[in-house]
Design goal:
Helix content is about 55%, strand content about 15%. By secondary structure, the protein is α+β, with helices and mostly antiparallel strands. It folds into 3 domains: about 1-85, no CATH class; about 100-140, no CATH class; about 155-360, no CATH class. Strand 4 and strand 5 form a beta hairpin. Helix 6 runs antiparallel to helix 8. The longest helix is centred in the middle third of the chain and has 37 residues, at about 225-260. About 15% of the residues are buried. Residues about 1-15, about 20-65 and about 110-125 have low confidence and may be disordered.
Length: about 375
């Protein structure tokens, strides 16, 4: 009832603006502030065509043609502010107003549906009349429409995933420390001495480095400076740990291969310091690659790229959300190429170790 009364009163004001002699005449006279002539020839044609009331012949003031053809003929050329607001006319002298039916797409339970609204736009003040059950809050959750600017959201690792990886890393570090203590406590035992305790220490330390790299690899951050540090430290921790572990294992495998492949009485026996030199050489070359990668990484900045796991979408408030993630470098850049070389080198260490192990798989020790 309240909405109906408002609309009815609004239409009455519009009617007053259209019909009251003081409304359009006064406003038109005030806006133009000129005396416009009625041309007799034009008036005669208008009267003969439509039968409208004629203005007196000759040059007369505009306010004297209240119901004449000149008023009718010139309504559509101007607009004015009346009781109801902004009043405009069409070429045939009728008031222009528009009633627009609006519908909004909404995502409810995954599916999209439409909800209708009504808006009135015939005055300076737009009158928005909602259907039953609709309001500003149902149209937009904040009570006002968005400005159209997408909301940029930077994703990082999920908390559950981070906790899971951190837990595994802590377990791995704990087991590594246990192995380190065990090897040190029983270093004089024959079985431990045959495995070269010093090399065992290096393997365990390398494993600890690799587990520590997990904390930097899944560090949940969206700050550019922290991401830059994360990219550098993670490569150092993981690379050094990998080199120490698999470089030492490769050196041990080489000694086993050298002892049991084509054994001869005068064959040189590899000592622990020989193996340490092998480990140092393997690790040193890997460190050079990591240093080059670090320099290249320090000269570039992490890049924000589109998150392939989350497509852009609209919120319940019709706000567009765009998702992105940090990556350490662009594909094809110098850090990318150096990173690729590092992983190729680390992969070759494992490949050579597998080949040596394959060559010694059928070793027989005579008694």
């Amino acid at each position: 009832m309240a909405e109906s009364t408002t609309i009815t009163a609004h239409l009455l004001m519009m009617a007053c603006d259209a019909l009251c002699p003081w409304g359009p005449d006064a406003q038109l006279t005030r806006r133009h502030e000129t005396k416009r002539p009625c041309q007799e020839t034009t008036l005669i044609r208008r009267v003969s065509s439509f039968g409208w009331q004629s203005c007196p012949p000759g040059r007369v003031q505009l306010h004297q043609c209240l119901h004449g053809c000149m008023m009718r003929d010139n309504y559509y050329k101007v607009d004015f502010t009346g009781v109801s607001g902004l009043v405009r006319y069409s070429e045939d002298g009728t008031i222009i107003y528009t009633r627009i039916r609006l519908a909004q797409w909404r995502r409810v339970n995954v599916a999209l549906d439409t909800y209708d609204l009504v808006t009135w736009t015939e005055t300076l003040i737009s009158h928005l009349v909602y259907d039953p059950g609709e309001s500003d809050q149902t149209l937009y959750s904040e009570g006002y429409p968005p400005d159209g600017t997408p909301v940029a959201i930077t994703n990082t690792y999920h908390t559950v995933l981070v906790v899971f990886y951190y837990f595994l890393a802590v377990v791995g570090i704990t087991l590594s420390i246990v192995c380190l203590v065990f090897n040190f406590a029983y270093r004089k035992k024959k079985v431990i001495r045959l495995t070269t305790p010093l090399l065992n220490y290096i393997i365990v330390c390398g494993a600890i480095f690799m587990y520590v790299s997990v904390f930097f690899g899944v560090l949940p951050t969206i700050e550019r400076a922290v991401v830059q540090m994360q990219c550098i430290v993670h490569v150092w921790a993981y690379g050094i740990g990998y080199l120490l572990v698999y470089g030492t294992i490769l050196a041990k495998m080489w000694r086993v291969y050298q002892i049991f492949h084509d054994p001869t009485p005068n064959k040189m026996i590899l000592k622990a310091w020989h193996l340490m030199c092998v480990v140092g050489t393997i690790t040193g070359f890997g460190v050079l690659l990591i240093v080059a990668k670090t320099i290249a990484q320090a000269l570039t900045s992490p890049q924000l790229v589109d998150d392939s796991e989350h497509s852009p979408g609209l919120t319940s408030s019709s706000v567009l959300e765009e998702y992105s993630v940090w990556q350490c470098y662009e594909s094809g850049s110098i850090p990318f190429v150096l990173d690729l070389l590092i992983f190729v080198y680390l992969g070759l260490l494992q490949l050579v170790g597998i080949i040596l192990a394959f060559q010694t798989r059928k070793v027989r020790i005579p008694f």
